[in-house]
């Protein structure tokens, strides 16, 4: 059954809404936090924001989780030497965070750890504290990765650190 409130949120979400929550200074801070974080572990973090989904996708049951899995693929987060990519995906219309870890990391980190990070971020987002929520989430992810996926002698930066804004409906 379709959640009509959710459908309406996606239908009427202005395409510029992400800019209100993530102005340039916030995107710069996130990029810096990711860059610094990746010096302390062997993982690669990618942060993606999608403003909303096409209303037809929501009507047909597209969830934030399904969309995050698609984003993991089209952003090529899986394309790292040690399968060490982590996607932090925000579906802004739902204020839903999904964390997808590549198999090299997923084999070492309990899925409940990712869920706890996502829940903490979502709580900050509900209060409108987007920058704090993302920066704290990156810090927590970095701590997990440092424990379970320490850097080796060769620790290249394989994925862009800049947050990506996913155009609605992009495939």
Describe the secondary structure blueprint for this structure:
Elements: H1 4-11, H2 17-21, H3 24-37, E1 44-50, H4 55-59, H5 64-74, E2 85-91, E3 96-101, H6 103-106, H7 111-126, H8 130-148, E4 164-166
Parallel strand pairs: 1-2, 1-4
Antiparallel strand pairs: 2-3
Helix pairs in contact: 3-8, 7-8
Please, what is the average pLDDT?
Answer: 94
CATH architecture label? Roll
CATH topology name, in short, is Diaminopimelate Epimerase, Chain A, domain 1
Order of helices and strands: HHHEHHEEHHHE
| Proportion of beta-strand residues | 5-15%
Oligomer: single chain
Overall structural domain count = 1
Total beta strand runs = 4
- SS class: alpha/beta
CATH class category: Alpha Beta
Total helical segments: 8
Cα-atom radius of gyration: 16 Å
Strands side by side in the biggest sheet: 3-2-1-4
Helical content stands at 40-55%
The biggest beta sheet reads: 4 strands, mixed
Give structural notes.
The chain contains 8 helices and 4 strands. The model has no long low-confidence stretch (mean pLDDT 94). The protein is α/β, with parallel strands linked by helices and 171 residues long. The chain has helices at 4-11, 17-21, 24-37, 55-59, 64-74, 103-106, 111-126, 130-148, and strands at residues 44-50, 85-91, 96-101, 164-166.
Short recap of the structure:
This protein is an alpha/beta fold and 171 residues long. The chain has eight helices and four strands, in the order αααβααββαααβ. The protein has a single domain (4-166), classed as Roll (Diaminopimelate Epimerase, Chain A, domain 1), CATH 3.10.310.50.
